[in-house]
Specification:
The structure is a homodimer of 182-residue chains.
Chain A: E1 7-16, E2 21-28, E3 34-41, E4 45-50, E5 57-64, E6 69-73, E7 76-78, H1 85-97, E8 99-111, E9 120-131, E10 144-149, H2 151-159, H3 166-174
Parallel strand pairs in A: 4-9
Antiparallel strand pairs in A: 1-2, 2-3, 4-7, 5-6, 5-10, 8-9
């Protein structure tokens, strides 16, 4: 993708939150139109599609205040400043699931919500999984449980609309060559 | 998914932008943790997976200022107040692509970025496509072109990382029973 930044004419507003910065800017787009646009500036996220030696996928069912409920997601986390995505996701996989992976392969990357966010998700296949000897302590505001599903079960959960989010469906698609959906 | 809203303790800040509202609130989550969380309140979006009688998928290559470039996406649009998702996407398909569909089927719905946004995408399969007699006029700030791809070509573009976003990959997955990826 060719990089075509808009021209920044005026910074109206910005708010630094927990994980992203909200900005309202006056921009000139490549086609010449000018106006105020609001968006999320996000450091990016990293996602694992973890597969156990038995061929089970490791997911988390996680409370999301914005969604007002519990969603079924692949383990993922927000990049810290200057952090490589693979470092992020190796840490997050351990913290969220209690597994570590000995083999990592890039599955590519994608924009999550490009209408209003610059967040890119870096996706990895994580294999050669083994449970950690010592299970991790959770952050106080994380409210999640680990769920093991076969690829067929995850496909069925997506088709039934059981609260699987976009990055999880996209990561599952990117990993499809590595397992039979059946 | 069971509805479990957080308890709203204090509204710190909100900004109404073009398509969404940015909020910072003090919340109490179901597990008892309290704090300030920032998020996007979005009216929701609707997406079409449009298939021509020849089996081609209709996509748009669209400039996205947040992504600083052009992404390959299924036609989609933001719900207007009180609008049914199907009404939104029937209008957006015509405006963005110059096609209308005579048959619509729900493919389900998913959260787009539940870590910080309540946006739900409602996905539809759009078939019996025909070009409009009169091609639509574009909004001044829309900068897009129509792209026809076979399902195999779209899968290859996703695998090569050619700027296909999460909702498009997820919509493609949800529609997979309706065409052979090959």
């Amino acid at each position: 993708m060719r990089n075509e930044p808009p021209e920044l004419l005026h910074k109206w507003l910005w708010v630094q939150g927990r994980k992203f910065r909200y900005e309202v800017n006056r921009l000139r787009l490549p086609n010449g139109s000018e106006g105020e646009w609001d968006c999320v500036r996000h450091p990016g996220g990293a996602l694992a599609v973890p597969v156990t030696p038995e061929g089970q996928l490791v997911l988390v069912r996680q409370y999301r205040f914005a969604a007002q409920g519990r969603l079924l997601e692949f383990p993922a986390g927000t990049l810290e400043a200057g952090e490589a995505p693979l470092t992020t996701i190796q840490r997050e996989l351990q913290e969220e699931t209690g597994y570590q992976a000995h083999k990592w392969q890039s599955l590519g990357e994608f924009f999550l919500a490009p209408g209003y966010s610059d967040e890119v998700i870096y996706a990895y296949l994580a294999t050669d999984l083994a449970p950690l000897a010592q299970q991790p302590e959770r952050d106080a505001d994380e409210d999640m449980e680990v769920v093991l599903l076969s690829p067929q079960e995850l496909a069925a959960a997506i088709d039934r609309g059981e609260g699987v989010d976009a990055k999880t469906i996209a990561g599952f698609f990117l990993a499809r060559h590595y397992f039979k959906e059946g």
